[in-house]
Amino acid sequence: MTDLSATQGAARPWGKIALRWGLYVLLGLFALYYLVPLFVMVTTSLKSLDEIRSGSLIALPRDVTFDAWAKAWSGACTGIQCEGLRPYFFNSIAMAIPAVMISTVIGAMNGYVVAQWKFRGANIIFSLLLFGCFIPFQVVLLPMAKMLGVLGMAGTIPGLIMVHVIYGIGFTTLFFRNYYVTIPVELVKAAKIDGAGFFRIFWSIFLPLSLPIIVVSVIWQFTQIWNDFLFGVSFSQAGTQPVTVALNNIVNSTTGVKEYNVDMAAAIIAALPTLLVYVVAGKYFIRGLTAGSVKG
Amino acid sequence: MKYTVFAAATAALCAFATTSTAEPQAEVLHWWTSGGEAKSVAVLQQEFKDAGGTWTDMPVAGGGGDAAMTALRARVLSGNAPAAVQLKGPAIQEWYEEGVLSDISSVAEENGWADVLPAAIAEHMKCEGHWCAAPVNVHRVDWIWANKKILEDNGIAMPTTWDEFNAAAEKLKAAGITPLAHGGQSWQDATVFETVVLGLGGPEFFHKALVELDPEALGSDTMKAVFDQMRLLRGDVDANFSGRDWNLATAMVMNGEAAFQIMGDWAKGEFLAAGKVPGEDFLCASTPGDGYLYNVDSFAMFEVEGDDKVEGQKLLAKLIVGPSFQKVFNLNKGSIPVRTDVSLDDFDMCAHTSAEEMASSSANGSLLPSYAHGMALRGAQSGAITDVVTAHFNSDMSSEDAVKMLVDAVAAVQ
Amino acid sequence: MTLWLERHVPKLVLAPSFAAILLFVYGFIAWTGWISLTKSRLMPKYDIEGVQQYTRLFDAPRWDVAMNNLYIFGALFIVIAMVLGLLLAILLDQKIRTEGVLRTIYLYPMALSMIVTGTAWKWILNPGLGLEKVVQGWGFENFKFDWLVNPDYAIYTIVIAAVWQSSGFVMALFLAGLRSVDSEIIKAAQVDGIPTTRIYTAIIIPSMAPIFLSAFIVLSHLAIKSFDLVIAMTNGGPGYATDLPATYMYAMAFSRGDLGQAASSAMIMMLVVFTIVVPYLYSELRTRND
């Protein structure tokens, strides 16, 4: 609704058209900046290794071949098994989906409390949660490993889920809290007078308003968890390793022959689920879906 | 729902474990994940399987083993260490001091390891007198690779002294060819540095400076000369060397953009993969000077519980040093067998040179551990040296300052 | 009983998170503080030896470089990503027909693992392979862009790639914020004839102050934890010119077996974050609180 053109009125249609064109050109230029590395990756993944070795790293492929893609998916070696990324996808999915859901739900409830049901000390707790976002993950690796060992969750997927949820709630709480504070307090007051309780108010007033921020929270959490390497490599064992560990194993050869085309294809394949989330979740960014209920 | 899936999986695993209690089994943490390396390890897995064992693969690549070491720490702390871990150099003894390595002396004695391994290398596999690790291969670090055609066209012979190298470099620069293909990553800088230390200072000086960390040697004029030579080499690389992967530097030699590269014998794998033939397309020789810098890969054996796991560990150790695996693995990987009694008939001329010089160096005491590849020093010590070497190489720091910084940096981590 | 429950529900909802954070964040920070006072090498040891890890840290030239880089990188990265993210969100909010496609294009870099995109960036920014060579090939012989291989400028190339990776998410945050602004107010302002730029600077952007806080926290979190990016693009080089505290700490803890040193660097890192974030949090929460 903040349409730039709306204020220009119908009096200056040429100005309006020029403005629209300028807008699209600007957006297109930015899109180029974002797309250049992808261009390099895609073209590289379509070349043969001989072509890459002969020196043309940044150029269109002379002969397009999809061998690298097939190899990355089901043939590249990630250790003594040469089955590509495929077997590791399930581990990542089994880890990422519950972890994203749990941390988003906890974040929404926490944010709702901190924004609208303040009690003494609530802000301090919020600040403590926030500061938790800054702890370097390298620091928590060793004590966490010990803790998981004690809990009997070392090397398991539930263990990984727990770790991701714990270090994700700081962010999800932050997102929801900062979204919910912009909702007028009067709304909650009125609902309370009508006799609605804590959960009822959340369910019927806040949740319907939350789509854009749920999208943000899911995008953030899914990206972080799906792409996480450090926790994945430290707290997994044979059989529970997530796809990033497999990708890393394909890409990082110490003294072997580097297959850049397979590396690039593997990286794009590993990113596909996240991209899917962006496309699907992105749809729910549409404003005004339930905007009426704010004033309702 | 997710939990039940997991529970079912665990139950299945447990059931599997009980049926195979008597069989040896081993979980192996390693970072050989790419094509040729992975195939080489698969050979070991096959032999292990043929001997009735169950191999659980735990590959973690990245940063020359950094990521694997991170995973290893987490695994040890959570009380769940893998049976065999790819470790090398003094790191083996460091882990031993943490009290987590097991004793495999019985295997070593049964199979007569002491008779077939060079003494210097055998020493790396021992923790306070008993065997705690099994060696896999020997990489030679002090190699210089060259594009044969470029050398012929410019009338240059393989240099045997650093002065010859410098003269050749001048000639090449005049002809418009980059003399040295190099990747500006700290470990590559360190690799070149140690070959210069060996070449200019000789084996004895190398041992004093980079193994014993003798402050006098580190602060000596010889060390200053080493940094002077590093400064000269800095002039022999192209402008865009920073951050280049070593294999792209190798490609420069292959494609005739550069004449030489100083790199360990894994570079040979790149040449061979591109269909180049040693002696015809490219040349290999030891870097100027005497001596032999080795980089030995090995598996350290961690304390595990349960007869099946202990059995698995012993079987694995036996197979690793066994002649058949030694031969197949090293043919694949470009290195040479650590055993001196393996026939080298199927190996190429570079491997033959490597094996001959290893034997002669072993005899005259110039068989030395590579500092740049973690064979000579503890991580903190070698890291401190590398910081100085790479800072000097990538700036206009004077050799005097570099020597001074080197002495200080080493003193700080003693 | 139910009344008591009713009254305490908000606290009960927050309690589990609070307990978890207390143990897994603050407990672990305390543990790190302890380790930083020991001579731990490969694995943690618990005998306190004093503050020598800190004196060693402050004597290390490499740590100075890392901290300086953090300031340069952090400031540039946060400001540029924030401005770019806001700009993109505002532009995308103009009823753009291809919004879905553009949004995904701006966001996708977040999805890609930096282990591999780092390689792509390395090629693009390398003078001999990428941009410089391409532009020179177009006939601009004097075009020079060699930041990646220049120790004094390499850190700025990290900023370019980091902004590329994260600004899309900041855009998503602001987009969500823009879409929660009450459209009635904007309509009213437009009816009153207030120019669009004024509507943005005076009404919309101020109402998104909490979103700025989110963006700031997310970006500073990414800035201090930037790790994969540096490892993949420059691995700290040329020399150690692009080292950051996070890479320093990781090198000490896991490749050099110098855990005590790593712990002391982590403590200093958190201290720096603390001195920057706490005042901001304080002012932000106080004004929102009244």
From TrEMBL, chain A:
The chain crosses the membrane at residues 21-42, 93-113, 125-145, 157-180, 201-222, 264-286. One of its GO terms (biological process) is transmembrane transport. Its main location: membrane. InterPro entries: MetI-like, MetI-like_sf. Residues 89-281 form the ABC transmembrane type-1 domain. It is a multi-pass membrane protein. Keywords: Membrane, Transmembrane, Transmembrane helix, Transport. The keyword Transport applies. One of its GO terms (cellular component) is plasma membrane. It is found in: Cell membrane. Pfam families: BPD_transp_1. PANTHER family: ABC TRANSPORTER PERMEASE PROTEIN, GLUCOSE IMPORT SYSTEM PERMEASE PROTEIN GLCU. Belongs to the binding-protein-dependent transport system permease family. This is Carbohydrate ABC transporter permease. It comes from Donghicola mangrovi.
Automatic annotation (TrEMBL), chain B:
Pfam families: SBP_bac_1. Gene3D superfamilies: Periplasmic binding protein-like II. The keyword Transferase does not apply. Its main location: periplasm. SUPFAM superfamilies: Periplasmic binding protein-like II. It is found in: Periplasm. This is Probable sugar-binding periplasmic protein. Keywords: Signal, Transport. It comes from Donghicola mangrovi. GO terms for cellular component: periplasmic space. Part of a binding-protein-dependent transport system for a sugar. Residues 1-22 form the signal peptide. Belongs to the bacterial solute-binding protein 1 family.
Automatic annotation (TrEMBL), chain C:
The keyword Transport applies. One of its GO terms (cellular component) is plasma membrane. Residues 67-280 form the ABC transmembrane type-1 domain. Belongs to the binding-protein-dependent transport system permease family. It comes from the Bacteria. Keywords: Cell membrane, Membrane, Transmembrane, Transmembrane helix, Transport. The lineage of its organism: Bacteria, Pseudomonadati, Pseudomonadota, Alphaproteobacteria, Rhodobacterales. The chain crosses the membrane at residues 12-34, 70-92, 104-124, 153-178, 199-224, 262-282. Its main location: membrane. It is found in: Cell membrane. This is Sugar ABC transporter permease. It is a multi-pass membrane protein. GO terms for biological process: transmembrane transport. Signal peptide: none annotated.
